[in-house]
Design a protein that fits this description.
Layout: H1 3-16, H2 20-33, H3 38-50, H4 54-67, H5 72-84, H6 88-104, H7 109-119, H8 124-137, H9 143-154, H10 157-169, H11 176-191, H12 200-205, H13 207-222, E1 240-245, H14 254-268, E2 273-278, E3 304-310, E4 313-319, H15 327-340, E5 344-348, H16 353-357, E6 364-367, E7 380-382, H17 395-398, E8 401-402, E9 430-434, H18 438-441, H19 444-456, E10 461-465, H20 471-476, E11 484-488, H21 493-497, E12 502-504, H22 512-520, E13 525-528, H23 532-537, E14 542-543, H24 546-558, H25 560-577, H26 580-597
Parallel strand pairs: 1-2, 1-5, 2-4, 5-6, 6-7, 7-8, 9-10, 9-12, 10-11, 12-13, 13-14
Antiparallel strand pairs: 3-4
Helix pairs in contact: 1-2, 2-3, 3-4, 3-5, 4-5, 5-6, 6-7, 6-8, 8-9, 9-10, 10-13, 11-13, 19-24, 22-25, 24-25
Length: 598
């Protein structure tokens, strides 16, 4: 090791230990011996940044980049220095250059994701400029990573359109697991509202639906499943029902509770032989370079054939927890369903790939767990909420649509609780925001809405119920942070509803279950006119814009008569539209219709 390397090694040890004065002196010694040395310039810049001297940091690190343009770390730290100097567009471009260097080296999701999220803090124009920088410098041929990364940075639906059209034009370019992982990655990003530019409806009703059909068809063809799927003989009654769901996770997971409830009612109340099939067919491990990497949960004890019990009932289930989407697993599932020989298949939940494998050989009824048009191939497509219609859907989907209400089965109310038990002040209006994905769903815009609400309701407070990691940091930056609190997971949500004034719904697709339970307990809901919550509460309880959102929330907090009237309307809505028993009866009627159509 030469003298300069020795000096740098000692200096970085001082730096890591917090002895910045000693480190800075040694970095300068390196520059005296080797003017323009990139590492010394960079590390002097880092010390300046850590010491609050942002402009000096920019100057030093920019010199380091000029000497070594191929270091992702140099570009990233230049981005941090530029950001600290208030030069956001330049910062985003520096982060983009670091991101491209890492990506071109095949870097995994960890560092790529961190840099992408730094860029996602900025306004749309800055994000678009950063995406263009990445696109111009990208050298790999991986269309999955390139287009999904560009969407993540910019929110422009055109990048997902490019990705999907590539697969539609040349399916053999991609493996089945690769298409499967990309499908779920796109679906989740759209569900979370990450699209910021482009015609999302045209994409989801057009190319994305065709991509889903391609995924189902290629899965059947390449895995030889089409030869194992036998066309069922005509049936005169519904006696055996296979309820195929994407995911059963057990207690505390609302879709699991709903799937079980439908199954046990079909079995116990209507005499059907029911088999729950749990393929775990959502993406549960990385299967290509799609960005961001993600996975869904699996309950490993749900393995093979077993009986699951809840609500005083037991239902047979066949579960496949293997974290993959491959020929062996899909063949085992198809063979098991064929042996059961159901009279009808209930496709429980959206994008139910396994249920759709049977759509050409058996009657399939799609039972949605969310509002909107799902890409199901089922014989019949049911609505999610009472007012749902097929208006605006493609013709082939409109003919298969039938009106329906998902219905809800209330969890036990539990003992009455006080605000003190939740660590909340005893007086004043209490607004609650409830969800399983609040980190993603409660963004800066909604927090600003809450700030405006609390400005107008000086004795009000907001409680967030649901597991979070990032949200508390965003709350701390609000004007009314002292009156907003993240409670984390709340055991027995109806106990919280019992002491709340109103349920506030952020702009999101999900949340239907938590809103339904709020209605049942007479907790008024404030929501915009789209998504699952809007479908559950009905048009009379939705608002058009932020001004109306605030007006309704303020009135509920400050006008006891308005609040009492809204509470009665909530209970009435639940009683009239969300009876699960009626929903199951209607489902059976549609199952019989599907048999006749098939």
């Amino acid at each position: 090791m030469d003298q300069i390397e020795q000096t740098l090694a000692v200096a970085t040890e001082h730096h890591r230990a917090g002895r910045t004065a000693e480190a800075e002196r040694l970095y300068r010694d390196v520059l005296d011996a080797s003017p323009g040395h990139p590492d010394a310039l960079h590390l002097l810049g880092v010390i300046a940044l850590q010491s609050g001297r942002a402009e000096e940091a920019v100057d030093r690190i920019a010199q380091a980049v000029a000497g070594d343009d191929g270091s992702p770390l140099f570009h990233a730290n230049l981005g941090h220095a530029l950001h600290a100097s208030g030069r956001q567009r330049e910062a985003a471009l520096s982060f983009a250059r670091a991101l491209t260097l890492l990506t071109n080296e095949g870097e995994g999701w960890g560092n790529v994701g961190a840099l992408a999220n730094l860029i996602r803090r900025y306004d749309d124009d800055t994000r678009a400029a950063a995406a263009a920088e990445v696109d111009a410098r990208y050298t790999m041929g991986d269309v999955m990573r390139r287009q999904s990364l560009l969407f993540l940075l910019s929110g422009d639906i055109a990048h997902y359109r490019n990705l999907v059209n590539t697969a539609l034009e040349d399916p053999l370019r991609f493996s089945v697991p690769s298409m499967h992982y990309a499908y779920w990655g796109i679906a989740m990003r759209l569900f979370q509202g990450d699209a910021r530019k482009g015609d999302i409806g045209a994409f989801t009703n057009g190319e994305f639906r065709r991509f889903y059909r391609l995924l189902v068809e290629e899965t059947a063809r390449r895995y030889g499943l089409d030869t194992r799927l036998r066309r069922a003989s005509p049936r005169a009654a519904v006696k055996r029902v296979a309820l195929i769901t994407n995911q059963m996770l057990g207690e505390g997971h609302q879709p699991t509770a709903d799937a079980f409830d439908y199954a046990r009612r079909l079995q116990n109340d209507h005499g059907c032989e029911v088999l729950i099939v749990n393929p775990n067919a959502m993406a549960v491990e990385g299967e290509n370079g799609f960005v961001p990497e993600y996975s869904y949960n699996v309950t490993e004890e749900y393995d093979g054939e077993q009986t699951i019990s809840a609500q005083g009932a037991s239902v047979r289930m066949l579960s496949f927890p293997q974290p993959r989407f491959d020929e062996e697993k899909l063949t085992a599932i198809v063979d098991a369903v064929e042996r059961f020989d159901p009279d009808v298949i209930i496709a429980f939940g959206g994008s139910n790939t396994v249920a759709d494998l049977f759509a050409g050989t058996r009657p399939v009824v799609f039972l949605p767990t969310s509002s909107g048009l799902a890409p199901s191939l089922a014989t019949l497509l049911l609505g999610y909420a009472p007012e749902d219609s097929a208006a605006g859907w493609p013709e082939e989907a409109r003919t298969r649509f039938r009106p329906f209400s998902f219905g809800w089965n209330l969890p036990a109310a539990g003992p009455a609780r006080s605000r003190a038990e939740f660590g909340l002040p005893p007086d004043g209006p209490l607004y609650v925001v409830v969800g399983n994905r609040l980190d993603q769903e409660v963004g800066p815009e909604f927090l600003e809405t809450l700030d405006r609400l609390l400005d107008r309701v000086p004795d009000g407070q907001v409680a967030f119920a649901g597991a979070v990691s990032e949200l508390p940091g965003r709350i701390a930056a609000t004007r009314n942070a002292a009156r907003m609190r993240a409670l984390g997971d709340v055991e027995g949500i109806r106990g919280l509803y019992g002491v709340a004034t109103a349920y506030l719904n952020p702009p999101r697709q999900g949340g239907g279950g938590s809103a339904a339970f709020a209605l049942a307990d007479g907790l008024p809901v404030v929501t915009y006119a789209w998504g699952d919550v809007a479908g559950v509460v009905g048009p009379s309880m939705t608002v058009a814009d932020e001004a109306a959102f605030l007006e309704r929330a303020v009135a509920l907090g400050q006008d006891p008569a308005a609040r009492s009237q809204a509470a009665e309307a909530a209970r009435t809505r639940f009683a009239e539209t969300t009876d699960r028993a009626r929903s199951v009866e209607k489902l059976l009627d549609y199952a019989r219709e599907a048999q006749g159509l098939f």
